[in-house]
Design goal:
It is built from 8 helices and 19 strands. It is an alpha+beta fold. A hairpin with a 6-residue loop joins strand 1 and strand 2.
């Protein structure tokens, strides 16, 4: 189906009273994409905005906020162009959908690209929404669209203020031929000093992170992992756990030994009671110094790739004093404030994953392969807030551990990493 960049979709006008708007963005396959979901809703490229008749504004975020402020940025961009009060926008994390894919071919947040990927897109979406509401008000009142003005989520006519939500059924696609962006001098939100939109939630403890997720009948698991890479599990005995309060189960998984209790503190208190024997691997004696020595050897023997060449480097070296220095940087631990965690619920014919992650497509695909389900039966619910990421949450280990434990127990499981883990 071919959809022009200035088209939009009116969803369920009679039934749900919802106007769903989305604007195309640059994608990996073409400049503009359109995807038709099984429900009949249309998603243009990677951004989705929903308005209800009661005036509720929901902005779907396809980029995760790890504390870098994308929630405030995206809300501000949209509110600025759409003429909506910033405080009336609610953020909803995006589900996994190819329409949200980036240039890397997957739905992911990383590489400091959220702003560059979406800056114009979100502004265009807001401008398009404002234009839609202006033409809808003109259709409803009969007044020329040029005489109308958008302000604070309303259209101001010669007589009344009409809320955006009251204009849904008058929206007319064919009349929207232009939706120019604001000039910088007209900005009311962008470039102005104001609090982060999520600062109140975070400072009052109302913000919910993955670690806060709870489901009925949920248990908590931790994993005892090998002391070094390449080590393998040889044997384990958990007899001492059987008499402990809240004990559920203990079994081997791909990454180590899972201990499952009713409460998290019970797992921490008893994890040392499991007798484990590990079989050493090839990296058992590997040291940091040996790794640096390998790096130094590779640098001395291999030539780097030439990316850009400007000036005469050899001439500069010969004409002046050469200063040499060698720097060693330690391995960077991406230690987030919120430890790794994931809630998984395997129900046989479906799998739900509640995870603070940076790559929901990767989580879904790997989890589907692990449990043997079609990808469309695996639902990744990315949390609204991530307590830090730094790329660490683009990895899959903690998600797959939760999925593997849940598949074994057939019940909701919260997999937790301690700060020591």
């Amino acid at each position: 189906m071919s959809i022009s960049r200035r088209q939009f979709i009116i969803k369920g006008l009679q039934g749900t009273g919802v106007l769903a708007l989305s604007i195309p963005v640059i994608s990996c396959t073409s400049k503009y994409k359109c995807a038709d979901t099984q429900s009949g809703d249309m998603i243009f490229s990677t951004h989705y905005f929903e308005i209800t008749k009661d005036g509720q504004f929901s902005l779907v975020m396809d980029k995760t906020d790890m504390g870098q402020g994308t929630t405030t940025l995206f809300s501000s961009l949209f509110a600025e162009e759409a003429e909506i009060p910033l405080e009336r926008i609610q953020i909803v994390p995006a589900k996994v959908d190819p329409a949200y894919n980036t240039g890397m071919g997957v739905q992911i947040t990383g590489g400091s690209t959220s702003t560059s990927d979406r800056f114009l897109t979100i502004r265009e979406a807001g401008a398009f929404l404002k234009a839609t509401m202006l033409y809808a008000a003109a259709a409803k009142t009969g007044e020329p669209v040029e005489s109308l003005k958008a302000e604070k989520g309303h259209i101001k006519t010669s007589k009344i203020l009409i809320p955006y939500g009251d204009l849904i059924e008058w929206a007319e696609v064919q009349k929207i031929n232009n939706y120019p962006l604001k000039d910088k001098k007209d900005f009311k939100i962008l470039g102005k000093e104001r609090p982060m939109v999520d600062s109140f939630e975070k400072s009052t403890g109302k913000a919910e992170y993955g670690i806060d997720k709870k489901l009925e009948n949920m248990v908590v698991a931790v994993v005892l992992r090998p002391p070094h890479f390449t080590a393998r599990l040889k044997s384990f005995n958990y007899d001492k756990l059987n008499s402990q309060p809240g004990f559920v189960d203990c079994f081997a998984i791909a990454s180590g030994v899972a201990i499952v209790f009713e409460k998290y503190w019970q797992t921490l208190k008893t994890r040392d009671l499991v007798d484990i024997e590990w079989e050493s691997g090839s990296s058992a004696q590997l040291t940091s110094q040996e790794i640096f020595d390998r790096y130094k050897k590779d640098i001395s023997q291999k030539k780097g790739d030439k990316v850009v060449e400007e000036g005469d480097l050899e001439k500069v070296f010969q004409s002046g004093k050469t200063v040499e220095a060698e720097y060693h940087l330690p391995y960077l631990a991406h230690a987030t404030m919120e430890p790794m965690n994931c809630v998984a619920w395997y129900q046989g014919d479906s799998l739900d994953i509640y995870s603070p992650n940076q790559g929901p497509t990767l989580v879904r695909n790997a989890s589907a392969a692990l449990v043997g389900l079609p990808r469309e039966k695996v639902f990744v619910h990315t949390t609204k807030f991530l307590g830090g990421g730094f790329g660490r949450r683009s990895t899959l280990d903690y998600n797959l551990e939760a999925v593997e434990v849940s598949k074994k127990l057939k019940r909701p499981v919260k997999l937790m990493w301690s700060r020591e883990d």
